[in-house]
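#dry-run=false #mode=assembly
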Amino acid sequence: MTDAVVRDYPPAGAGPTPQSAAEAMAQARARAWSRQVLLALVRRTGARLGLAWIAVLVLVATFAPFIANSHPLYLVVDGVAGSPALAHLEPVDLVWLAGFALAVVLGLAPGRLWLRVAAWLGGVGLVAILAYAFVAPPVLTIYEQYRELEAEGRVERIVRAPIPYSAKDYLRDYGDTGIEAPLAAAGDGRRHWLGTEDNGADVAARMIHAARIALGIGFIATGIALVIGTLIGGLMGYFSGVVDIIGMRLVEIFEAIPTLFLLLTFVAFFGRSIYMMMIIIGITSWSGYARYVRAEFLKLREQDFVQAAVACGLPLPSILFRHMLPNGLAPLLVAASFGVASAILAEATLSFLGLGLVDDPSWGQMLNQAVQSSTFNWWLAVFPGGAIFLTVFAYNLVGEALRDAVDPHTQKAGAAR
Amino acid sequence: MKLLEIDGLVTELSDGRDWLRAVAGVSLAVRRGETYCLVGESGSGKSVTALSVMGLLPAGRHRHPAGSIRLHDADGTATELLGAPEATLAQVRGGRIGMIFQEPMTSLNPVLTIGEQLDEALALHQPELDAEARAARIVAALEEVRMPDPASRVREYPHRLSGGQRQRVMIAMALVCEPALLIADEPTTALDVTVQAGILGLMRELQQRRGMGMLFITHDLGVVAQIADTVGVMRRGELVENGPVAEVLRRPRHPYTQSLIAALPERLERPGRPRVEWGRSAAVASASAALDLANTGRTSGGAGATAAAEAASASAVARAAVASADRAGGAASPAGSHAASGALVEIRDLAVHFPVRRGLLRRVVDHVRAVDGVSLEVGAGEVVALVGESGCGKTTLGRALLRLIEPTAGSIRLAGRDITRLQRQAMRPLRRAMQVVFQDPGSSLNPRLPIVTTLTEPMRVHGIGADDAERRRRAAELLERVEMPADSLWRYPHEFSGGQRQRLAIARALVLEPRFVLCDEITSALDVSVQAGILRLLRRLVDEEGLGMLFITHNMGVVEFLADRMAVMHQGRVVESGPTAEVLRTPRDPYTRTLLAAVPRLDGALAQG
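#status=ok
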């Protein structure tokens, strides 16, 4: 028996043949799939631009109280030092900051991806509970007090945020400020880079604080939709038969519900709440994801490795979530990144229609102000509109790049460029 | 007289960054009226050579640093094809060179009738013909490839035709313009052997009648022996041996050709097996399997009292089996002993029918009888081959046997215990005893999990090994047994070749220490040298561990090497079964005879030639 015959042929030294290339690939360090996709993603210019814009948004949203705030970051009055900005931090601010810090720490920590994601969710949840239970900033905020103190000459040292106005600081101490174009203030020491809106608040400050709503609604609404869609779609795809028929009817029912109309109804009955909006957008948009997951699972169910997992007697959750879901995730991720964009648009639409939040800033609501005035105030249209456009565009870019990155065929084509 | 002359052809392909040399200086010549077979394993560059001739390689992703391809005319002028303008190539393709591809299912356009597709090529290359003449030519061409009822078939769409009929249409399409050269790239690989025999006979006949040159690409030496005049053996882009077929196959000079021929399953040396002790050892093995099951039943308390009762009966069967084996003694023939002892796996009158539903209310109007009353048994330490052509129900039978799909009727017994109607929960502890390896190396391992997880997860579920470290150690040992390096544990499936993946899939099946393994065409996607290694490994595992194995295949050479007994399946039924040598030598059923006669054999063809 010649044993050399048995094995796959070892590569000969001569020339870069296909075999030796395959061999070299096998020699390459083992890389997890998620890492490969990430690498393929950041190799694309479009994805880089999109991710950069989203990163800027995340930074701005997280550190909004330190970027745009009427409360000074550091203040010494009558010999007493303090940080009004820190004292006035709301529970929401703390949750954002904690979430960001945890994400950085866990991002660098070793371990399985899903474990780290779970740790992040748990940590943010814990911080949220603690923050809402124990953090109580002063109920009455008087934004003009610092400017008055300064005018009285009692301030010894003051460090202000780069944009020294809060989102809801209507500059009452300056009298009738109304709508002002960018950098057109009346020479009383104010400087509004992006102008002011109807009530006299600084547009830049409002836009910075509105970034939170844009990000939050996108991620949470899409997250809710993803979880529901994956569960229902996965069960439909795996069990097929009766489960599938019932599930598909459910999908059809939910697809027939007009999201905007439902939102209008709920706003009319229960008042305005950003969380309600997130939930409603989430539970009306899962049907698309369920369809994707179902199709993937129907395909995967027949795959040999799934059959082998069944034959090994593995329990159902393992088969569904360990052997099937990661393999069917690719189209889901792509759909999700487009879903984030459409959730942002849904909120903007609602706010534009005047059914969004009352006092809290949102990009859509600012657009609404732009059209309500008798004159056309271009800065109220251009800046929030531009932000919505760029954000939706960024998510679409990432989604498109993700679709290419998870598809091995286009991956090669991408490498060629 | 030379027809096609390839001289020092070099083809390099780009994967985006690097240039890979797929063909490295191949020189060959195809004469008129000659069949030149290009044979080699996957990745040897044989298809790329053919595509270079046709100029069909992807634009911008290939280059020819050297070489020439000349197509000689009858009057002695030659056309250089390499780097020829697209207009010249378009004239040559289809007109002077016809091509047939491997996959008949996808090489016809599904939205055009076959008449329209044939007409298109004809109208392009022979514009002097009018519509009526073309229609007549098309019918004649279909008649020539022995298409039944060609006049009405021209209006059919491809989905109405079987794989063999589609390949006949492809041949008709390649021949309708009467090319001087026909290039066939693995034209019969996707077809069943009986269909393949018909197509090969047809191609040879057409080629001789027309005096055409033919460049025939294949990986199957049996096909080479049947059809070739001249053969060229390719390996890694180089032509290592080249000569008249009888000479190359009988007295191969190059070591690679020798190793290819030696690796044919029917040429593999069968390891000696303890024939005399067989009856006793097999019965003991199957008895110990039954005891294992009994223990599993006892320890998995969840199944409850019925499981305990069944376990008791299983262990009783096991003890009886040992006793009967002792009585039967060493003289018992294999067939006799497992009949007496109760086989490891035994199916009786198993049927799997798929309902055909129609209409709004999804009423069941008919059944597809995929498996229609099959009885079969597999003893421990024995390989039973299940042979049949595609669609005969052999894969369905395998999956029903493992309870991956629900059987309609009949019974399945595992070591004496009836598992036909067990619930999912009760089935789970028993899954340990019966494992499966699938056909497609591309999809048999979860691409998102490293090998270590694939191997240790089933162990954890079934409580094998005390902790993860011990399970990993066991997994590493298992990799050694399937002849894979231990560092494979930390890799992902895409980093392995097809043969390596099948070894890993075998390891995954063995990880639970099963008593029975189902192998569903596990070598049919592999090259012959890789296949030889896997077959040897399987035989060793069966002999050393007393596994029972049902090996589903369509390859008679594999059956001959591996199987102790074989069963031939046709249209959902077993038409013949018995010891391998007996069935192969003296087939009784007419279908078995047809099947065996259709298998292209190296030895038979050489003996005739």
